[in-house]
Write a structure and sequence with these properties.
With about 80 residues, the protein is an alpha+beta fold. It has 2 helices and 4 strands; from the N terminus they run αββαββ. The chain has a 4-stranded antiparallel beta sheet, with no helix packed on it.
Length: about 80
C-alpha cells in the first residue's frame, strides 16, 4: 500500500512541481502551499537534488525527507522560501 501511495505522490507532483513555487517580492522562490501542506512538501523534497536535512532541533515534519525539514528552507508568515532553488 505504501508503494502505491508513494507512486501516486510522485505522479502528481512530477508534472506540477514548478507550480508549487512563486517568486515573492524579493525575488525568492516561495512555496505556494502553506504550513499545513505536508503531503506536497514531502513530495517536492523527494524530487529535490538539493535536499539536506536540517539540524534535529529544527525538524517539524514526521516525514524525514520534506521541505519542512530542509536546511535550505526559511519560514515566512504563511509558508517558506527555498534557498536552494
Amino acid at each position: 500500500m505504501a508503494n502505491l501511495y508513494e507512486a501516486a505522490i510522485k505522479r502528481f507532483l512530477s508534472g506540477v512541481s514548478v507550480m508549487w513555487w512563486r517568486l515573492n517580492e524579493r525575488g525568492e522562490k516561495e512555496f505556494r502551499g502553506n504550513k499545513d501542506s505536508w503531503l506536497e512538501a514531502a513530495g517536492l523534497a523527494q524530487q529535490c537534488s538539493g535536499f539536506k536535512t536540517d539540524v534535529e532541533e529544527e525538524l517539524v515534519s514526521d516525514e524525514p525527507v520534506s521541505c519542512y525539514n530542509c536546511r535550505y528552507r526559511r519560514w515566512t508568515n504563511k509558508s517558506f522560501i527555498c534557498r536552494w532553488l
